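2 proteins. here.
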Amino acid sequence: MVAGQRNTADGVNVDVSMKIEIWSDVACPWCFIGKRRFESALENFEHKDGVEVQWRSYQLDPSLPEQYDGSETEYLSQMKGMPEAQVRQMFDHVKTQAAGEGLAYDFDKVVVANSFTAHRFMHLAKEHGKMDAAKEALLSGHFEHGENIGDIDYLVRTGVVLGLDEAEVRGALEGDKYAAEVRADIAEARALGVTGVPFFVLDRKYGISGAQPAEVFAQALRQAWGERSPLTVLSGTNDDGATCGPEGCN
């Protein structure tokens, strides 16, 4: 178990008994859905005040340029070798699942861009205790509002909204600050055998792959609480446990 304390939003120290690491990419549609489902399970978990959540970086396509000159449909069609009509059908399924979690995806607005700078921004936000808020803002910006997650000006504006210093954010992103931290997260995911995201690691005991239903997360939280064992990937039986990998999203 992870020992120590953390500060809650109101400044009260609570014992941290379990750490949950979530590998995900800002450019992953199932990662936002998985975030909502996990949050639902955690909200109803009786030991939620003893849980520390940490976001870890992962890139589905590190080879992307800063911005792809084309639509999300065109990009996935090219990457997966699928007809555009089939890609749009896949989007419809994802949009339906997202809507079930209160998310309004608009794939026609999505700006296809490399997510590396966004991950560096996330690590900067972590230094200020704003990592979860940054993750929420970037996922919503990307999938619901058509923002360019590779654009430094957008990331700076987002940082200011979160209460970060504009000059600090711009200085970090215009340089290469936090690049090593992003690469370390990706390397650790590789070492753990992560091949798709979202991927949830509970106290380094259990791994959960995909945007599983809230009930699966709830069961895993109960099972992992107070237990010690080697990391075991828990397989869900529901088709909603979908992931995105280097070859695209399921």
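next one coming up
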Amino acid sequence: METRTASCGCGQLRIEVAAEPNGVGICHCLACQRRTGSVFAAVAGFPLPYTVSGQSTAYVRTGDAGCGFVYHFCPVCGTTLFHTEDDVDDEVFVAVGAFADPGFPAPQISVYDSRRHPWVQLPPGVQAFARDPS
């Protein structure tokens, strides 16, 4: 079992997971674009348990289907490091870029592809959904 550590930009907030990701996805919804300041968010879902060190501030956003997304970000540098979802109690979702690992597995799915910027090209084999299929 591989242990991976992701951290915020200043290193104050860290999350450690002790498993391979259940899946990797990218989201092009407008909320993720605003939250990340990028044109999409890349996240990896990991099974429990996980360990957090440092202080975080939480922000709750309600998704289209009514689920609460609880985003944890560093109060020092502002990096959104991970999130949980109200209707998912056995998984944590970590920002892929926070692992600072260019060899991290590629995404398998792309959600809210209807909001994808036309110049963003998906890797081969990625399953795309116009909205969130869940």
